[in-house]
Design brief:
By secondary structure, the chain is mostly helical. The protein has one domain. The protein contains nine helices and no strands. Helix 3 runs antiparallel to helix 6. The two termini are 24 Å apart. It is a multi-pass membrane protein.
Length: 200
């Protein structure tokens, strides 16, 4: 919910920054990059939605052994998929972008350059999404909301407002990776702080 509520504000600010520094082609390029990003994140987002009821069930059963095993498997899966997704987006980025933008056009060139920077977010996004989903599954909506709010709004807003003024268009592409990187710090802190309480 927190992510959805603020996504419109982030999109507005991102588009305004792109219009200022890269024009209409920059806005079109961002749309293409986000299509690729969404495709890369779909697998582990689906996995997190699927595993959440299992986490809830084992927590309700007070089965800490299964929770610990499940957490280990989940973290390994998220790490592997995040790494593979990022590599796929970097190696085949031109091909994926070519589905939406004609190679050789200004939009394509901007998107290929922006894609390489933007996709660093994939290295952090998976664990952040998992951490938020974990606490939702454990009926701790406050911590889940804090994680989601920090990475999708607070850090993202700060990065969008600050970085373009320093790095121009590259700052726009860096905004999401920086927000996700700062978000993973919050996620890790929450993950370890509540580990004993929930027994995962």
């Amino acid at each position: 919910m927190a992510t959805t509520l603020v996504s419109g504000i982030n999109a507005l600010l991102m588009n305004q920054a792109l219009l200022l520094y890269a024009g209409e082609n920059g806005v079109a390029a961002y749309t293409v990059i986000y299509y690729v990003f969404s495709a890369m994140t779909a697998l582990y987002i689906g996995y997190i939605y699927g595993v959440s009821p299992i986490i809830s069930y084992n927590y309700g059963q007070h089965d800490t052994d299964k929770l610990k095993k499940l957490t280990k498997v989940n973290l390994i899966f998220i790490a592997l998929v995040s790494g593979i997704s990022a590599l796929t987006a970097w190696i085949f980025g031109g091909n994926l972008i070519g589905i939406f933008a004609e190679p050789g056009t200004a939009v394509y060139e901007i998107a290929v350059h922006g894609n390489f920077i933007f996709m660093f977010a994939l290295l952090f996004n998976g664990f952040n999404t998992y951490a938020s989903g974990l606490f939702t599954a454990l009926s701790n909506g406050v911590v889940s909301g804090v994680i989601a709010f920090c990475r999708t709004f607070l850090f993202s807003l700060g990065a969008i407002l600050l970085l373009p003024g320093i790095l121009q268009t590259n700052g726009i592409w860096l905004a999401t990776p920086i927000a996700e990187f700062l978000g993973i710090i919050v996620s890790i802190m929450c993950f370890f702080r509540y580990r004993k309480r929930y027994g995962y």
